[in-house]
Amino acid sequence: MQIPFWKMHGAANDFILVDDRSLTFPAGDAAWLARIMSRRTGVGSEGTILIQPAQAGGHFRMRFFNPDGSEVEMCGNGARCVARLAHEIGAAPATMQFETVAGPIGAEMQGDRVLLHMTEPKDWRMNMTLDVDGKGVACHFVNSGVPHAVVPVKDLAAVRVQELGSTIRYHRDFAPKGTNANFIQITGSDSLRVRTYERGVEAETLACGTGIVASGLIAGRLGLVKPPVRITAASGDVLEVNYTPTADGATRVTLLGPAVHVFRGTLDYP
After folding, report:
1. What is the pLDDT of residue 112?
2. Under 8 Å between Cβ of 29 and 44
3. C-beta separation of 61 from 71 below 8 A
4. At the topology level of CATH, where does 2-118+259-268 sit?
5. 170-193 burial, b if ≥16 CB within 10 A, otherwise e?
6. Which pLDDT belongs to residue 250?
7. Quick count: other Cβ atoms within 10 Å of Cβ 40?
8. Among candidate residues 105, 83, 100, 74, the one with its CA nearest the CA of residue 200
9. Superfamily (CATH) of domain 122-250
10. Residues in the chain with pLDDT < 70?
11. Which helix (H) or strand (E) is 199 found in, with range?
12. d(Cα 77, Cα 14) in Å, to the nearest integer?
């Protein structure tokens, strides 16, 4: 079976996207999914995204698979890419709503950028202290579509993201599902920089949309920044997180950033 696909990226977070409104994509074959996302032996990506028929009143359903073949709730950078592609292939209008495991997402086309209306943040856990190799690490947590730990630091460049991020990702305080790990450095009253260790990728990535959202939310709740927050990813791209602060968190959360085409191709499924 030959499967047409699009390669896209959002702030250098890259994806394989497939129009699966016919529901013929072999989504249950995790080993094959991992092979096509491999950097050395496949197309190479940090996720595979399917456009499927809506099930609950949206314009379409988004399904997201990590490079290990596992399915997860949401991906912010991927959601911008899938929104742009869905609009271009006629699956959704310029202002749309689509379904994810995390909940409904709204999107608006703004040229080659996309504004996402995110799900409500939940499961806030502020001012945690993680025991990491006998030392305490100040950490905060929020689910911005998927779980994210956020660690403020003074020198972002000095953070050993692979080592510390992996430890936090598998830390017992986040068992059994684990968490993504973000390290942030405040750069102004409305700006910060972030580096992210992504669960499922099991490495630092150049950008993580839900991680960028979580970082902006946590920094705001700590009183370190005020929205809208301009957040620079490891890729150098600047994304904007906006929200309305509330007594117990935040509401009306949006993420504005790029969604870029790279190339088109065909996958061969045995």
Report:
1. 84
2. no
3. no
4. Diaminopimelate Epimerase; Chain A, domain 1 (3.10.310)
5. ebeebeeebbbbbbbbbeeebbbb
6. 97
7. 5
8. 74
9. Diaminopimelate Epimerase; Chain A, domain 1 (3.10.310.10)
10. none
11. none
12. 8
Based on DSSP, count helices (H) and strands (E) in the chain, helices before strands: 4, 18
For the chain, how far is it from start to end, CA to CA, in angstroms?
Answer: 7
**What is the DSSP-derived secondary structure letter of residue 172?**
G
> 244: helix, coil or strand?
strand
pLDDT of residue 74: 93
- What are the φ/ψ torsions at residue 73 (nearest 5 degrees)? -70, -45
Instruction: Return residue ranges of the chain for CATH 3.10.310.10.
Output: 2-118+259-268, 122-250
Give the tokens for residue 162.
Answer: 């692979």
Q: Any idea how long the chain is? A: 270
Quickly tell me which residue has 């660690």 as its tokens. 151
Catalytic residue set: 75, 208
Could you tell me the two tokens for 101?
Answer: 């495991």
Phi, psi (degrees; rounded to nearest 5) at 256: -115, 125
3-state SS class at 85: helix
Q: Three-class SS of residue 26?
A: coil
Q: How far apart are CA 211 and CA 107, in angstroms?
A: 18
Distance CA 173, CA 188 (A): 31
Amino acid occupying residue 10: G
CA distances from 167 to 176, 185, 206 (A): 14, 20, 19
Please give the structure tokens belonging to residue 39: 């950097």
- What pLDDT does 111 receive? 87
Query: Residue 175: what pLDDT?
Result: 93
Residue 209 corresponds to which tokens in the numbers above? 């949309």
